[in-house]
Amino acid sequence: MKTRSTSSRDDGSGGDHPLYRFRLFVAGDEPNSHQARATLERLCATRLPDRCELVVVDVFADYQTAIEHRIIVVPTLLIESPPPVRTIIGSLDDEAQLLAALGLSEGGKRP
Amino acid sequence: MERKRKRSPTVAARQPLAPPAPATSIAKAPTFVRGLDEILEGGLPRGRTTVVNGASGSGKTLFGLEFLYRGALHGEPGIFIGFEEPPEQVRQNVATLGWDLPALEEQNRLLLLDARLKPETLRSGSFSLKGLLAIAAGKSRAMGARRIVLDALEVALRLFDTPQQVRSELHALNDWLHAAGLTTILTFRPSLRGEALIYEDFFESMGDCIIALDARVTEQISTRRLRVVKYRGSGFGRNEYPYVISPTGLRVAAITSVGLRHKPLGEKISTGNAQLDGLLDGGYRRASCILLAGLPGTGKTTLAATFVASACARGERVLYIGFEESEAAMIHNVTSTGIALQPHVEAGRLAFLTQYPEALGAEEHFMATLDRIEAFSPQHVVVDAISACYRMGGKQAAFEYLMRLLNACKEKGITILLLNQLSGVTSYMEISGNEISSMVDTAIFLNHQFSLGETNRVFQVLKSRGSRHSNQKREYRITDHGFVVEDVYLGEGDVLTGAARQRQEQRDRLEAQRLAHEIEAKELELKRLRLAQEQMQQARAQRAILTHPEKSGAPPSAGEPRP
User: Fold this and answer.
1) Which of A3, B256, B300, B516 is most buried, taking the most CB atoms under 10 A from its CB?
2) Which of B22-31, B172-181, B309-318 has the lowest mean pLDDT?
3) Domain total for chain A?
4) Boundaries of CATH 3.40.50.300 in chain B?
């Protein structure tokens, strides 16, 4: 299951407006997965318009991809770009924490 | 998968005294771990969860892997989920046991899943183990898995903050495992400080079968024990069983410490020495335990070798377990007493198992011995000497090694000859050795006896169960043609040896001579008396003729009245 919230505007090479690539592993529509997905989609829409690519993987539908990425718990968010790859597990309740991890703490600008 | 539980024929055949299996016996999945299925009366509960706990180094990962590896070889694909060790390490660890996991993985009969959380992982909010469940479920369907192992599950559970979360994760896991019908092993390491008790309780309630592995080091020798703590719906061996990591995998000694399955003692067999056979009313008994105890140099090994040679000459097999000497030294030493063992070795009737007692722990020693016994299937086993067993790690280790060996031999109907080297003070406890006296059927005590400035050798049969035997002390010599028992001479309530015996013999000879002379004298006297009697009779006859010449027909006397 792929969701491209917005098509990428540039080539993703970085600069002032890097492309964010997210891969979110969920388990169907169970509450934690639902919440994580909602949080991430909102963030993409509000903070990263036009520079966010979100791929959602339902582990029950595609366990092979889950194996490849060594997924144990869901939801698991992989921030594949910009590097380095980071992993965040959980329902992403704390948006501030997520923003910090993305380096977006300061009003949408990169530090 | 609800196959009828099959009891292995060995278990069925060996349990005449064990309580009968419950009528509603549950389906079992054999572990194929040597010795374990006997204890579990067939295997782990099929389609159910078994919890294996043990400290690090106790072999619980190996336990799980062997269950999968052997299961896969027997047509039951399996999944290993490792929360602690990366698959590459797992493969390497067991490659030394000769297990080719990659081959099974290629054939889709085994899957090693890396379930370690990446170290740089951040946490934000709630999550569950459903990712893992989804992978396991998908893979399990694809492979047709029948078995699954979750190794070091407590590592994953540490991710959760509250007991409620842990409980709910375990419930979800349990529900899925049940639904999938997988035979499961969960392993976990009990916490040392009790901090993880929360999920230990959950674990235990999830397990239909709980097995505790205990590894400890005492007197610098490691000992490993396996215990089945519970087994819902099934009987099981309730002892602590020693286990080792053998060169091919785990090995559990399914030997009870209370021998209920002992074979009865068999017929008499020669000790190899006709005189000793006489004293024992025919010899040792088959399947019995014979103890030869004595000070160094009293000829225990010679007496044992005498028996070995005679058993081998009958075409029987003997395993000689040597803790004191090498095979070559032992064979050479008894050659001087005219006992040739080398031909028996060459003919494959005599095998040696020589080891330093210190080299291994009691369990490893016992397993090595049992392996050898099973491979060679001897009729007789000699242990030279049980006194050396203390060096396996103390008195308890020696006792356990011997008890298990004795039980194994008694269950297999093997005659076992124990040599015990005494240190000097000879209490009966020491003679009988290692508190195993109740197991000993025949005890022979070899000793030095000092008298009249010499040392001689005497032996005494202290006990011989189920047969008449002489309990006299007897002198013996070790000669260049073996063990020679001297004829008995009783002195003042004790056997006479050496010079004292010779003096007694001389005394006896003189006495016999005196008696012989006496008889001769009596006979002469008798002859003389007979002669004298004859002479008297003759003389009387002569006198009668002279005084009555007309005796015949003549009237009696002049004074008699006539008719």
Assistant:
1) B300
2) B22-31
3) 1
4) 25-119+130-252, 268-488
